Amino acid sequence: MTTTTGTGRRIVLVTGSSRGIGAETARVLAGRGDHVVVNYREKRKRAETLAAEIAAAGGSASVAGADIADPESARALVEGVVAEFGRLDVLVLNASGGLERDAAPDYAMLLNRDAQTGLAALALPHLPAGGRIVFVTSHQAHFSPTRQAPPGYEQIAASKRAGEDALRAMAGEFADRGIGFTVVSGDMIDGTIIVRLLERRDPDAVTERRDQGDLPTVEEFATAVADATTLDAPLGHTVYVGGRDFLSTAPAASHG
Predict the structure, then answer these.
(1) Which H/E stretch holds residue 180?
(2) Which of 105, 144, 160, 194 is the most buried (most CB within 10 A)?
(3) pLDDT tens digits for range 68-78
């Protein structure tokens, strides 16, 4: 773990944050005064560059390499953060995957469900009352029980929805410790790797979403994720970003 600065601030761990939505979320949180731990699996240089950019802008960040799908690596990640900073205030569960060409058949469920609940369980003993857990997902996954996912994305949608459900099943533990839990779900996010991969596999699926209106940008979605770390909302509240047509079937009380 490489630290730039970071005392007297909330300590926020953002998984999968060396690029994309995670990186932009880290920038937003650091800009608001948090110390952000930028987690990466392989792209150390990219993570260090992000941390340096945050520091140059007056923020506070560090980097921590870990494969959260590996239980021992995940444990070392949480223990390393706590050892260095004495606490962990917010956990943003942003890392996800499964569309990788060399991914094993069970990798999507391992990463998008098991790793999410495993990391939450590891973090729980260290999160103070008033701490937060935020789970980042997509409309294509969140609504997958009632709405068909795009071709080629079904496995990811099912595994991310399974991860969300498994985290919701931990709500009693969160409540007992006074920990907030929020889900942030977005339509396809313009400019992300997932959208680019889907455009190659099924261009019509992306075109269909664009026909419903402008897709949220990375900046818009990341801001919603950052906002969720301080949002005063009921346990398990869902914040929706974009995709108004999805929301016609969502319970009104869950809309963000």
Answers:
(1) strand 180-186
(2) 160
(3) 999 999 999 99
The reply to whether 160 belongs to the active site is yes
Catalytic-residue membership of 107: no
Which position among 40, 45, 107, 153 bears the catalytic label? 153
Q: Which residue among the candidates 40, 45, 160, 240 is catalytic per the annotation?
A: 160
119 Cβ contact list (under 8 Å, min separation 6):
15, 68, 74, 77, 78, 91, 93
pTM of this prediction exceeds 0.85? yes
Q: How far apart are CA 182 and CA 225, in angstroms?
A: 9
Span 83-111, mean pLDDT?
Answer: 85
Q: What residue type is assigned to position 16 of the chain?
A: G
Amino acid at 60: S
Strands 2-3 and 237-241 turn out to be: unpaired
Give the integer Cα–Cα distance in Å for 74 and 70. Answer: 6
